[in-house]
Amino acid sequence: MRVLLVEDDDLLGDGVRAGLTLGGWTVEWLRDGGSAAAALTSDVFDAVVLDLGLPKKPGLAVLRELRGRGNGVPVLILSARDAVGERVAGLDAGADDYLVKPFDLDELGARLRALLRRAQGSAEPLLRFGDLALDPATRRVTLAGETVELGPREFALLHLLLGAAGRVVSRGRLMDSIYGWDAEVESNALEVHIHNLRKKLPSVPIRTLRGVGYQFG
Ligand code: CA
Predict the structure, then answer these.
(1) pTM higher than the cut 0.85
(2) Which residues are in the CB-under-5-Å shell of ion ligand 1?
(3) Do the Cβ atoms of 164 and 116 come closer than 8 Å?
(4) Which residue, 9, 40, 61, 137, has most beta carbons within 10 Å?
(5) Mean pLDDT of 7-20
(6) Which among 30, 78, 27 has a CA at the least distance from the CA of 51?
């Protein structure tokens, strides 16, 4: 899953990026509101972690524009301890959750997973399909109760496809979600990971729609 982190504090941003990357997220980090607004217009993210005090454009303005366009991506805002009014304004402008600085990285990860679940229309923490189960918190996948060992990219792919079960997910969306902006990627990398997933999960249906993308179920 791909998260846009908008934070102008280098130390905090660095810590959050490291923590979320360790949790399996593809993290895109931007340091000002202007470039965040541009990225949110051109790119698709699974979640946004948005600081409110930002150079160039305040986080609240970024959020209002985003919701004004009908974009429903889950947004968690970060705010200073003494800024209750700011948090209220953020929630009323369409934020889904907030954390007060300083915060615990484990809590941020758990809150983002909760937001993702809701965005995928589920209250159940495990994603299931038949006898397949995926736990985003422990990053464990089981098939008929047996653990299946997946690489981080394979896990990320399965997570995205399973969360969108029944819908077609485009190739571009999958590539962005598992690699992000910075990575140098071989053109057939996605196909290789899909091939490996099918080998490890032979009873699980992953359909190829040639030239379009993939569909789970
Ligand atoms: Ca700030």
Answers:
(1) yes
(2) 8, 51, 53
(3) no
(4) 40
(5) 97
(6) 78
